[in-house]
Amino acid sequence: MNRPGPFPRFEDVLRSGMPIVTCEIASGDGADPQDIVRRARLVRDHVDAVNVPDNTAGVVHMSALAAAAILAREGIDPILHVTCRDRNRLALQSDLLGASALGIRNVLCLTGDHLIHGDQPNAKPVFDLDSMQLLGLAAALRRGRYLSGREIEPAPDLFPGATENPFAPPYDFRPLRLMKKAEAGARFIQTQITYNVARFAAFMERVRDLGLDKRVPILAGVAPLRSAPAGRFLRDRVPGMEVTDAVLRRMEQAGPERARSEEEGIRICVEIVEQLREVKGLAGFHLMPIRWEEAVAEIAARARLKPARLSLAAPVAAVARSETAADGGVPGLDGSALHRSREHRA
Asked: What global pTM score does this model have?
């Protein structure tokens, strides 16, 4: 497969004001880089950037930094998850500098799932910082200073983001927490998976009241269920996850036959995307197929999800060609032609 041509960066796509699509792929469960490549190629044509998890649920997988470097080598713009659970502030600063050196700008700042949820619960957690402090750390590095105050030359080129969970009580606090993350330096937000659209809409109403949808682009998390047991597992075992009774009933009525169950899961996911399109203030969608990357193409087709970068790529390529012809070099794509005023919509 040929690598793609010159595409605008994730930051530039967000600034364009067009609806955005991102997708999370599963981390490698071994040392084979081709596993990451295979998963990434299943989704690359349907998204603007690809998230790489960092030992999700406290279970060991391939280094997220290594996986993100593999994606970058494939011509895919990665969003690197960086969690505070396993690293102190020295290691976090070192990894953020290393990411920038590898050309990985987009970093999702996370506190991290506690180790009691993983398969090695006796491991020692770190939690030297939390996600809010990690955002502040990324901002300090971007300004050219370590936390110690020592100067960095050159400073890392980072584009930090954060998550928010509208489905974890206390619900009234969640928009305020999003505001704190925006103030700490988050440049984009990806939310927890949405199955309760009414609760998400109420969350976004308060977000709009606070004017946060104008300050930071918000991508609504969506995911297909493969079976009723998978839905019950998410509801009962994953903290902060809300799978409604109505969704579970539909999955149970689909029966145990795999093809029918998966079809119903995709259908529900597409319906949720359509409902979320009616919620004002969204910049796009974040797909989390939960080790089912094969479903992304079908969901994108049925829900009419198209990466904004494809629409923006033609003018970027044209500028690149003209500048190359003019000076004989290959220009850096700084996205300056794309920085239109943006209206968050999905």
From this structure: 0.89
Q: Which domains are assigned to the chain?
A: 19-307 (3.20.20.220)
Task: Give residue-wise pLDDT tens across range 14-47.
Answer: 999 999 999 999 988 899 999 999 999 999 999 9
Residue 179 · residue 206 · CB < 8 Å: no
Contact in structure between 186 and 212 (CB atoms under 8 Å): no
124/320 Cα distance (integer angstroms): 49
Query: Are 254 and 260 within 8 A, CB to CB?
Result: yes
Torsion angle, alpha carbons of 195, 176, 164, 13, to 10: 110
What spatial distance separates the first Cα and last Cα of the chain, rounded to whole Å?
Answer: 30
Strand partners, 135: none
Q: What is the pLDDT of residues 85-129, one digit of tens each?
A: 999 999 999 999 999 999 999 999 999 988 887 889 999 999 999
**At residue 305, what is the residue type?**
L
d(CA 57, CA 112): 8
What amino acid occupies position 37?
Answer: V
Question: Residue 74, SS3?
Answer: coil
